[in-house]
Amino acid sequence: MYFAGLDVGARYTKTLIIDGDARVLSKKMSTSGFDNNIISKNLLNNLCMELGITLEEINKIGVTGCGKKNIDFANYEFSETMVAAKSVFFFNKNVRTIIEVGAEESRVVKLNSDGRIIDSVINEKCAAGTGTFVELMARTLEITLKDFSELSMKSEKKIPMNAHCIVFAESEVVSLIHSGVDKKDIVRAVNDAIASRIASMARRVKVEAEVALIGGLAKNSGFVFSLKNNLELDNIVIPDDPEYMGAFGAALLTREL
Amino acid sequence: MLMGKKDYWRWSENVYIDRNKDWRQGEIITCGIDVGSVSTKAVIMVDGSLYAYSVIRTGVNAQENAKKAFFPMEEETGIKIENCSYIVGTGYGRINIPFAHKTITEIACHGKGASFVGGKKIRTILDMGGQDCKAIHIDEEGRVTNFLMNDKCAAGTGRGLELLAELLEIPIEELGTRSFDIDEEPEPISNVCVVFARTEAYGLLKKGWSKNKVLAAYLRAIAERVSSLIMRIGVEPEFFVSGGISKNVGIVKRIERIIGLEAVKVDIDSQIIGALGAAIFAKALYEKERGII
Amino acid sequence: MIVHYGYLDASGEYFITVDDSKCSVCIEKGCIKACPKSIFMESENDYGEKVMMVKDEVRKMLKYICAECKPSVNRPPLPCVTACPYDAITHSW
């Protein structure tokens, strides 16, 4: 039995195939591009080749993400909230709050002890509270996302970021660089800024432990550190592949249908 | 991301002198300087009527901007800062005008300036600047009765338009007219955020849309957004538009369509309204100090 | 004068509106103490009236700062609005 999960995000498309026992057999991601359908199909074909199977051998395909409507070969569509709840709870039954930070939207989902969604909030359409903010700031600072995470942890100084809009923040970062502020402190300021925005959104649903963080930004340990500080948490649960949790949730839900 | 090879974002600086007047013949010379985030404007009034103005790009050296904006007028007419009886500073950088006698908020200055050039019937003012957007209501004295300012988000500001000009490789001063060079008005693009809108616009170009059509869709989205700011304070005739973006007919015409009201047209550079208002305040303040009125 | 503090961004409109003509007659300004985030202050507006103003440094982050008073379900009355006897304060979201 093969079930495929597709997560067509604003920036990246993530896809994976699981077997009947919910084991991940293979996974792949690429930028979403402008033709979501073709990119997704190519990714899935690559996965099939890796596993030595054909596309037809996949029993069912489930899709999620903001580009899900553009996919014409999937059997099921799932909301981003549902797949997040499904996949995180599958890994850890103690999670009550899921924070997801994607490229173009971020959301907080509240679960009860059965893993049912009881509340959720979303921040969308404004880059100030999303992963794009970090990505563009990294580009402005001319450092990789990996360095971004490491540098942030080395900073011991808190400097404020006054601009909120990503466009104005970019000018602010440029002038901070010109005035000789250490890059690591700027990086930390960026992580602190985005963490404080995400944290206050999370407070609207009353954060309850355990808290899980998913989405690409979970790999940025500087951001995780800032978020922990802001929410006054000792621990944040981060799955091994935080960026694949949407696709995994879609595959899990497909398997059950 | 601002600096493209051809500088499509670059708008031109300018200076204007009313050659029918001579400042040396005037009694009260007042000056208003509006230090904005993107442009700095200086206005000289002689006995309460407009004599000269100058618009320059705001530079990185905060202390120098006001002086630099004044200088083109000095070059043309020989007038010096010391010749001004009273100087009022306004705008986001108003604290950095060492020679200003007083500073006044740009909201109050825009109200005063718009009422002066547009007439006493002006009630609603929209000011679209480099990094902010303001909607203001005034009474017949030019006194502010209701206002809001949006300076948090780049959408609907000059900076947002500069980025669009770069993306489409169209000089910023042609954006407005070219947005009407289309067969049919497209739906507005769905993203308001400048960064996401840029991705969306790029996608539309890839899909085969003409640059002008993408431009129209983008400007319509900005117009809808700015209109919602005006509607928050209420649309009351007559309507006046100022600020750098007011020169973009592509946005102004679309806003007029949405709110159902045409803007009062004046033959003065609408970028200088705030500085003009400051110069008007300067005259009143000077007269008050001297006990003239 | 009616003043709208806050902003509009792609995610929504976040304005706290203060009617200075109502606010200026209030001596107490109970709203200032009522706010758990201390976002208000008393100051003079352009026309010399003593009014409550939203502090400059928080104007661009109201969505985040006010979030705790606005839970996603069962929202209680807002402390600042409740504290104002003149109905001078309104929130747009």
Architecture overview:
The complex is a heterotrimer of chains A (257), B (293) and C (93). Helices cover 41% and strands 21% of the residues of chain A. The radius of gyration of chain A is 19 Å and the shape is globular. In chain A, 52% of the residues are buried. Chain A has eight helices and nine strands. In chain A, the strands form two sheets. In chain A, strands 3-2-1-4-5 form a five-stranded mixed sheet. The two termini of chain A are 13 Å apart. In chain B, the strands form two sheets. Chain B has a six-stranded mixed sheet with strand order 1-4-3-2-5-6. By secondary structure, chain B is of the alpha/beta class. In chain B, helix 5 (194-206) runs antiparallel to helix 6. Chain B is globular, with a radius of gyration of 19 Å. Chain B is built from eight helices and ten strands. By secondary structure, chain C is of the alpha+beta class. Helix content of chain C is 19%, strand content 31%. In chain C, strands 1-2-5 form a three-stranded antiparallel sheet. A two-stranded antiparallel ribbon of chain C has the order 3-4. The relative contact order of chain C is 0.29. Chain B binds chain C through residues 104-105, 107-108, 137, 143-153, 155, 191-193, 196, 225, 228-229, 232-233, and chain C through 1-4, 6-10, 13, 15, 46-47, 59-60, 92. Strand 9 (144-150) of chain B pairs parallel with strand 1 (2-9) of chain C.
